[in-house]
Amino acid sequence: MADRRLVCLAALALAFTGCGGGEARPPQKGTHASGAGGSGGTGGTPPPAQGRVLTGADDGFAGRLTVGQTARLRLPLPEGGPEPTAEGDAVLLIRISNVTGTGHREWELRAVHPGTTRIRIPRPSTPTPSTLTLTVT
Length: 137
Hints:
Layout: H1 2-17, E1 53-54, E2 62-65, E3 70-75, E4 85-87, E5 91-96, E6 105-111, E7 115-123, E8 126-136
Parallel strand pairs: 1-3, 2-8
Antiparallel strand pairs: 3-6, 4-7, 5-6, 7-8
């Protein structure tokens, strides 16, 4: 019984400290590029997008993935509403089913081969979509 408690406490400690568990971490400050196709602000290399959960608020984000890596796109769009679109074929935009009824829709952004993909996200309040740019190496 004591061993089981110790294992549970260790798992909780790992979850709260951010070690293990495979959970995506929030974006770090200062990693958003200004404008489409930006360089991320440091040294000309876009920041990694691996494991990030991107939203429409990330307008102008330019990030990088390597083949096989993924990120996520989560939007508060109603079911049957406008869909994000992808220009370019380096990243697949894969719809994830909403089984929890949260009112959000989600997509996996999967890097499939080197190149650049620009994702346009519809915004109900403005005719101009948000744009994310992902470069795959």
